Amino acid sequence: MRATAAVIAALVVAATMLLTLRLARGRITAVTAGLLAATVGASPFIESFTLSGELLASLPAVLSLLVFCAYLQGRERGASRDRLLLTLAAAGALTGIAVLIKQSAFDAGLAAVAYLLWRERRGGLAPAGVLVGGALVPIAVAAASAARLNDWLFAVVGYRFHGDSIVTGSFAGRTHQLWTALPPAGKALGVLALLAAAGWRRAPLLARIWVAAAALGVLGGGNFHPHYFLQLVPPLSLLAAVGVRTIWLSAPRPAVAAAGAAAAATFAVAMPVAWASPSKQAETIWPRDPHLVHDAVLARYVKAHTLPTQRVLAVWADADIYYLANRRPATQYLWSRNVASIPGALRAVHYALATRQARLVLVVQPPAKLDPSGRTAYLLRREYRLVTRIGDATVYRSRS
Hints:
Layout: H1 2-24, H2 27-38, H3 53-76, H4 81-101, H5 107-120, H6 125-145, H7 149-163, H8 171-198, H9 205-221, H10 233-250, H11 253-275, H12 278-285, H13 291-304, E1 311-315, H14 319-325, H15 336-341, H16 345-354, E2 358-363, H17 375-383, E3 384-390, E4 393-398
Parallel strand pairs: 1-2
Antiparallel strand pairs: 2-4, 3-4
């Protein structure tokens, strides 16, 4: 999984360089964008080492804008109408693929549509329609191939709006999540944001719209996990490369020194994490998720006190335990948001507890957090007995 993440990240860097070359028209600027994306944009504080949906979706998103630039250049060179329409449809299809991977990855398509409408007004309606139509093709294929359309719609659309979007939950809660996500995002992308601000005026219009669309995608996620900000890396790297060129050619020496100091500070914060122990890395990257620090010990306990054929259950979410301990989960729902959002998920947990399907139950979050009725806590007391505590987790063993 880490190797796949590295390969995808390398391809995203290469695509970002090609896009910068098309838009900024300079090889040095393109190389600078690639260097920024591969170093500053690979910060551990935004979990760039994980195989996240944001990372996977970034590749077709950047490729979508790259194909869209080919459409713009083809139009300038007088390419045939059929070829232009095919190119637009391909750009839209790549956007559709990105959205299928991660629903917030609409940034490239939105940037292209906004660019067409801003530059051409009514004349941009037809090409924008072709692009949107191209995006709908892979989405329609995915929907048509689903076993049950209603389940597919809930998984792709309804699930997100049920609990994982900016429009759900309390405004104060979403604001607090954003506030706590800004420090790690600042450690990772602060220097890119400063350099992008320096190059804003000289950056191509399409690149500026892309940054705004990517920011909208991050905000739409709602939960503001650090890896959400990976979506900003390609557009910020492009603008930051223009900013580096602007500072180098026209800024006074104090500005150049300040940019260098900001870059040095970014690396000074990130590099010690690379050399730290795994537990120290977890403490640094996820300071508000302390159970991750104890998961290795907890997994060893599970392996030592269960048979390979026995199942375990984490209440409410500790998905990596199943992998580390090599034990199957008692239910199919691995994340707390699954239990909170999917109809019938909580009943499935109750059934697993009532029938003692889990040999061990690992309580890593209070049962009342997702089940204020007290049913989960009652079943734990009735069917299981407390055997030990490991870190912040409480371990229960079935009475049978």
